[in-house]
Please model this.
Amino acid sequence: MAKRSTIEKTVNLALQGGGAHGAFTWGVLDKLFEDDRIWVQSISGTSAGAMNAVVAAQGMYDGGAISARKALRNFWKDVSDAGRLSPMKRTPIDLVFGQWSLDYSPGYLMMDLMNRLASPYDTNIFNYNPLRALVEKHVDFNQVGVEDDNFTLFVSATDVETGRARIFRRAELSVDVILASACLPYMFRAVEIDGRHYWDGGFMGNPVLSPFAESSPVDDIVIVQINPIVREGIPVTAREILNRVNEISFNASLLRDLRAIHEKNVLIDSGELSAERHRRMRVHMIEARKRMIPLGASSKLNTEWAFLEHLFDIGRDAAGTWLSRHYDDLEKRETLRLDEMFANAGGTSSGSYPDF
Model:
């Protein structure tokens, strides 16, 4: 990402959550920050997306785009190092066949069973969260939490009692906010902030898009998509069904926000809403659906460095392909065809998504 004086295009980034699959987003960010034609005005992040956002912001504070790229690499390397002692490892069969999932890992199967029988209030009596030390090591919120009109941050979490998304602005960010945004309720206790309790932001905003229209001067939103929206075929095994239910659940809020943007754009285009009083947002998406779909949900807990680097490479490739195809469209037209996506009430059109 270039110095502000040399940019040609400006975008907002929306970063999905997805556990270890957030290393895909790391790869996307690395490629975007390498491009000296682009300035990122705002980032909205959820869960792993929130971690990528604040680590990148710390790097930008320390020394610009080059520092941001180094900060992200160091963060994900520490994620891998912290996971070395985890009992959730691939089996020898997985290693032989090059499978990244943990579906047959004894440690993963034991954790999965325990999560169905007991809550973290039963099993995690000291409320330990290994992510706290990682975030504290890599982010100084006295620096990242300072408002800056040239670069804004938004992080979402889900209020446990109301079921609504809370959007934290840059000045409100803290370690607890990031942990709240990444708080999977079957693994961690709800995170308390200002007397309210929060779970993973992915339930109600994965990620939230509304702050861009409200608080950013930029009309282009680039979504970095981790969880496949479209998955052909009907799941038949218990694990396949659960995986697809999770994908649908964590994409529901994004589809809701995209539909709202589409409907407003239609009203602006038809003249029913004034273009002078309302903003028409242009939406884009960077994803690698064909390469991410084979990775099962259990691989979101796989923190092997080789796997994180694999995801990083996929992310860089996807961002590079997207830039070569759509860079010239930025600030001119949307490249995610929302009209096709919401053309019928029965679902979404797979044809409206890029294939890498």
In short: Residues 345-352 have pLDDT under 50 and may be disordered. The first helix runs from residue 22 to 34. The first strand starts at residue 9 and ends at 15.
